[in-house]
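Kindly inspect what follows.
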Amino acid sequence: MPVPIICASAALCQFAQAFRLPFSKPQFKYFEIVLVALMQIEGRRTLSEMQRHVAARWTLSGLSRFFACSSWSQEEVRRCWQRRFTLAMQEAVQQEHHRLWLQRPVRAGRPRKTLVSGYLIMDGSTHHKPKGKKMRSLGRHHSTTYDKRVPGHSLFQGLYVLLGRRCPLAPKMYRTKRVCQQEDKPFQSKVALSVACVEGFAPVLGTKTPVLVDAWYMNQRLWKAAKRRDFQISGGIANNRLLRREGADGQRFWQSLSEWAKTLAPEAFEELTWPSASGAQKRFVHCVRTRIPHLGACQVLCVKDERDDQAKKVTFYVCSLLEASVQEIVNALAVRWEVETFFGDFKELLGSDHYQMMSDTAIVRFWTLGCLAYLFLDEQRAKHATIGQTRRLVQEQQHHNLLAWVFQQCQQADTLNQVQRSLAA
């Protein structure tokens, strides 16, 4: 049964009102419809499915125009949710500083400053569109699901993780050089998108910002951009990169990471705990402070699942924190998995790849409102609850409101046809 707008959960209505300013009155109606639909739909999150699941006086063509050519600005919406997240977290950061100050060890000398870290994570996700030949900005991108290049759109996404809360940044569409030439648009590589994200990012006051990326983004431009902002940076690194080593005769030389790993004896690895959502996992890590060409001084980690694994099974990570312990670096690296969890929830629960829109503007706007719906669910998420569990709770609240509304209409002695007309109003 379609859910009327008046039966939306109270929390969702209050959340939507906080974003009233960027929309005109007709646009705000469609904005509310999209939020209710993203909470309600279990199948494909297409515009036609939204029409079947939300009862209101609106048309499919009107919703299509809302995404494709209405005058609202997704950047203004993004600024609104960024301000909302910053204001909500400012007090939490101060409380965390106070808690850490009370727990600091008593020692001689000046006490160390307390440290609260807010992680900036960046990654991309391919949205496979095998039948979308007429869609704008359609290119071929590598998909980890199919382990090959597939036709579709590439979403570049930043995620800010602070004290257990997650805030998506503005979604961007990555276009290949070929697509940019066809559409006469300036080309921006994924590296350029990540650098622009770091340069324009505004962290919550009183926090340090570690930047976390995978090996695809780890390069000189991003490394220097993070260092200029006084951000720490950590992430994966390809095994063909070089590191500086010192021979038995004291001579320094360059060696690839893969060759270096082959020289490490099993006893050179120490057993550490690698945090994860499914529980702490055992890993074997060897860490060395060295230099990487174009990156400079850093710490390099060689990680194995088992101590006696062959060199080809190892993973390499690099970190700009020169004085951090190995366990501290591992704890930071483990946070990067939050963006993979985000992409999984964004696709499965909010249908970020279900769109059937022809315009690239409409697609980015669909992603933007999906990120906003994710922010709402993260705000409502109780401790240790998942985004999916929170969404089901919102659905239950809306179903309860719908039954209460129908019951009230029937008590007022309305006919069945009148109740049916009210549902479509």
The chain has a mean pLDDT of 89. Residues 74-102 form the longest helix (29 residues). Residues 195 and 222 are 5 Å apart (CA to CA). The longest strand covers residues 148-162.
